[in-house]
Amino acid sequence: MQQRTINRVLTGVTGAALAGMLVGGVAAASHDDSAPKPDRLLAQQQDMAALNQKAPEKKAPSKTPAESRSKSAAKDSKASAPKAAKKKADKGPKAILSGSTTASYFWDDGSGINGDTGAPASGKPMQKGMFASPSWPMNTKVKVTYKGRSVTGFVGDRGPGAPSHNGVMLDLDTYTFRYLLDGGKPSSKYDAGTGEGHLQGVKWEVLSWGSGAGTKGDPQPLG
Q: Which keywords label this protein (predicted)?
């Protein structure tokens, strides 16, 4: 009977010990489950990387309507500048009559040099830009062009004389003659300095008729 009692006691102690071990194991297992596992950490890191990649890039601030209009207006202004300059040039005096002739040169100041016959017929002093015509009205505004060079002057004297019957319908002042020839300056008022006495194929354009004595229209020989 004593032995039976001892066995019962041992059985109870052993059962209690086993029960305690089971409870401790469950608690330990529960504690371990709360710690992140390697697979879960990797998944979280991948999620964070995906979020960073999807983050929107910062864009430059869009232009305001006022800025866009300002830049557009500036561009239009630059584009229209050459057109405006060309339009302005086109608004220059228009020729009312034009043609071409052979031109000579003169400088009449009463010196008697080179057949100088005295002061110009218009009564104005001899000067640069004064031309002589055998027939056009005095003070007629004329533009002459030769080899791309042009000079605008006025009729202030009569001439050429006899040469006008051979097609020489303009006498140019010495400075205009030399400039049209080669862009240079004459040796003196009386000498163009090149040995040339005539320019063939000078283009002339009447820009306005003068109010002085003379005849409008194509140039006519003197006399």
A: Signal
The total number of structural domains that make up the chain: 1
Show the domain range for 120.
97-208
Write the CATH number for 114: 2.40.40.10
131 dihedral zone (left: phi>0; alpha: psi -120 to 50; beta): beta
pTM over 0.85: no
Q: What is the dihedral of CA 12, 15, 17, 22, to 10 degrees?
A: -160
Q: Summarize pLDDT for 89-123 with one digit per residue, the tens.
A: 556 689 999 999 999 999 999 888 877 768 899 99
Q: How far apart are the first and last CA of the chain?
A: 180
**67-74 — which CB contacts under 8 Å span 24+ positions?**
none
Round to whole Å and give the CA distance between 128 and 173: 6
User: What letter would DSSP give residue 195?
Assistant: S
Mean pLDDT of 29-44: 55
Q: How far apart are CA 48 and CA 53, in angstroms?
A: 9
131 sits in which H/E element: strand 130-133
